[in-house]
Amino acid sequence: MKVTGLIKEYDTGLRAVNGINLKLYADQIFCLLGHNGAGKTSTINMLTGLFQPTAGSAEVFGIDMINDFDKVRNLMGFCPQHDVLFDLLTPMEHLEIFYDFKGADPDPKVKDKEIMKLLTDCGVDDKKHDLAGQLSGGNKRKLSAAIALCGGSKFVVFDEPTSGMDLSARRQLW
């Protein structure tokens, strides 16, 4: 991923992001740290297509993330700051739906294998048939992480991925 001169200025005149430049490489983990109000979420929202930047450019795998975001969507996984789950679906149903949204391998055996691995790896396999609305905050967070990882994501963006998780769950997930 290459980000050049990324700026976000809101209608109020507040400049939340002031010219970020990044170069990230395959198999790399990058953490964006800063105090509250530093522009972390605004940056993430621009890189995930939720906000249009005021200026600057960003590309991933040679694809323009600002103007060709539809091409980027199938490559990306995103775990937003707040869980976006359907209370009446189970973790397994969430992963099945989001896997299909991503347009991943349609072979049912491949799909089932990936979903079961994600449920296990993220620590919600014992809750796979429970309704999401009845999961604890930590298990909802784990499910959100699994959703971001499903469907063959080539790069994944997490905003506050472990908020609401206890320490042992944080260690287990990462």
Structural class: alpha+beta
Strand order of the largest sheet: 2-1-3-4
Q: How is the main sheet built?
A: 4 strands, antiparallel
Using the alpha-carbon principal axes, give the shape. globular
User: What share of residues is helical?
Assistant: 25-40%
Count of structural domains: 2
Low-confidence stretches: none
CATH superfamily annotation of the largest domain:
P-loop containing nucleotide triphosphate hydrolases
How many H/I helices?
6
Strand content: 15-25%
In the CATH hierarchy, the architecture of the largest domain is: 3-Layer(aba) Sandwich
Keyphrases for this structure?
alpha+beta; globular; 6 helices; 174 residues; Rossmann fold; 2 domains; two-stranded parallel ribbon; 6 strands
Compose a concise summary of this entry.
With 174 residues, the protein is an alpha+beta fold. It folds into 2 domains: 1-73, Rossmann fold, CATH 3.40.50; 75-174, Rossmann fold.
Q: How would you characterize the overall build of this protein?
A:
The model has no long low-confidence stretch (mean pLDDT 91). This protein folds into 2 domains: 1-73, Rossmann fold (3-Layer(aba) Sandwich), CATH 3.40.50; 75-174, Rossmann fold (3-Layer(aba) Sandwich). With 174 residues, the protein is of the alpha+beta class. The chain is 33% helix and 19% strand. The strands form 2 sheets. It has a 4-stranded antiparallel β-sheet. Strands 5-6 form a two-stranded parallel ribbon.
